[in-house]
């Protein structure tokens, strides 16, 4: 296999370290034309849908991509921000804030902070090429998924490792697999809830809704379900909630097969039928608000609960750009960059350049 062309190299050029945040992705616009290729890429990923490839190809291309883009586009339009997709906007802001925090704490080390999306733009291959052009020889990969799932973190790794097979001069890599029980992440989530309750009062029930996966993923060894349960328990313990005051459940069921239970829609309808006076819902599996939180939970969830007879319904926003979360993210990153941030001295770089030139190097 031919390798991609390496950037022009000049001896004595300082190497940089990069932090690459990874998130799911979003269509470029809230239109059926933009949603269709995004869904094709997303639902065409064998990590996402584990159905025999030929069977799924006919279902995806013959049915889903002919009916779902228009419906999905309407949902995206209902939550679209002036700057663009909420997920992309918040991820860009998080990236910028993290760059600033790390710059202060590393005292100007040659560190690049960027982000990429598994599906859509900016794509992982394009951002890896951008980092290579900046001479980033060490890259820390940071999935913005607190809990590991093969269909989220795992598929991002697939793309990255595949891209590296095309490179002659590969960078050193480190990966953060998950941070579901990280004290900083838990503390930031708990403070987010407490701050909301300080302003709006406390609910009768706190619902913690995580993205759902097919039940067979748990049976085949995916740790996602267990990590979600652990996150939920740690959050509840920090809030001093008893078992009757909170529920951990799973949203976004797709298709007819059994998914991880209990389902969020079922829980909200049951709470509504019990005439629960107030329910607050938070999504600890997302660190940035997106379609699944702003439309599915904040809008559809409210309708399910209220239609079933419930009272007040409150959606607590994701961590987004909260300072406590960005500080926690910076701590997590620095813990995993240990030993990588040695700043080369200018004199050493110049000596290296001169030695290379004396041995016949052109630059």
| Count of folded domains | 2
Percent of sequence in beta strands: 15-25%
> For the report, how would you describe the main beta sheet?
4 strands, parallel
**Largest beta sheet: what is the strand line-up?**
2-1-3-4
The helix tally amounts to 12
Extract low-pLDDT stretches.
none
Protein name: Ferrochelatase
Pathway: Porphyrin-containing compound metabolism; protoheme biosynthesis; protoheme from protoporphyrin-IX: step 1/1
Catalytic activity: heme b + 2 H(+) = protoporphyrin IX + Fe(2+); Fe-coproporphyrin III + 2 H(+) = coproporphyrin III + Fe(2+)
Function: Catalyzes the ferrous insertion into protoporphyrin IX.
Itemize the secondary structure elements and their pairings.
Layout: E1 16-26, H1 32-43, H2 53-79, H3 86-106, E2 111-120, H4 124-133, E3 136-143, H5 150-164, E4 172-175, H6 183-200, E5 205-211, H7 215-219, H8 224-238, E6 246-251, H9 264-273, E7 278-282, H10 291-307, E8 312-315, H11 323-336, H12 346-358
Parallel strand pairs: 1-2, 1-3, 3-4, 5-6, 5-7, 7-8
Helix pairs in contact: 1-2, 3-11, 6-8, 6-11, 9-10
């Amino acid at each position: 296999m031919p390798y991609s062309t390496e950037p022009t190299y000049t001896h004595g050029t300082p190497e940089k370290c990069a932090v690459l945040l990874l998130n799911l992705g979003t269509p470029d616009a809230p239109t059926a034309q933009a949603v269709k290729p995004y869904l094709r890429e997303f639902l065409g990923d064998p990590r996402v849908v584990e159905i025999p490839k030929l069977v799924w190809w006919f279902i995806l291309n013959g049915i889903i991509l002919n009916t779902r883009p228009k419906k999905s586009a309407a949902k995206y339009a209902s939550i679209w921000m002036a700057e663009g997709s909420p997920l992309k906007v918040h991820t860009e802001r998080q990236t910028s804030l993290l760059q600033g925090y790390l710059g202060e704490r590393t005292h100007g080390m040659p560190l690049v902070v960027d982000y990429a999306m598994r599906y859509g733009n900016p794509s992982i291959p394009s951002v890896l090429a951008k980092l290579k052009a900046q001479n980033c020889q060490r890259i820390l990969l940071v999935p913005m998924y607190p809990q590991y799932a093969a269909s989220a973190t795992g598929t991002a790794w697939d793309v990255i490792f595949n891209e590296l097979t095309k490179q002659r001069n590969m960078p050193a890599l480190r990966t953060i697999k998950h941070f579901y029980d990280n004290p900083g992440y838990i503390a930031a989530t708990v403070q987010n809830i407490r701050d909301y309750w300080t302003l709006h009062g406390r609910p009768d029930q706190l619902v913690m809704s995580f993205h759902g996966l097919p039940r067979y993923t748990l049976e085949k060894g995916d740790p996602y379900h267990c990590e979600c349960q652990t996150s939920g328990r740690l959050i509840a313990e920090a809030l001093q909630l008893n078992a009757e005051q909170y529920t951990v459940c799973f949203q976004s069921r797709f298709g007819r097969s059994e998914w991880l239970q209990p389902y969020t829609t079922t829980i909200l309808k049951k709470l509504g039928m019990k005439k629960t006076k107030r329910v607050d819902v938070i999504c600890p599996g997302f660190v940035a608000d997106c379609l699944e939180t702003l439309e599915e939970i904040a809008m559809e969830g409210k309708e399910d609960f209220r239609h079933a007879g419930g009272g007040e319904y409150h959606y607590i926003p994701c961590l987004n750009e909260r300072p406590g979360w960005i500080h926690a993210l910076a701590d997590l990153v620095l813990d995993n960059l240990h030993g990588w941030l040695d700043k080369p001295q200018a004199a050493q770089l110049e000596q290296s350049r001169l030695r290379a030139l004396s041995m016949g190097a052109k630059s």
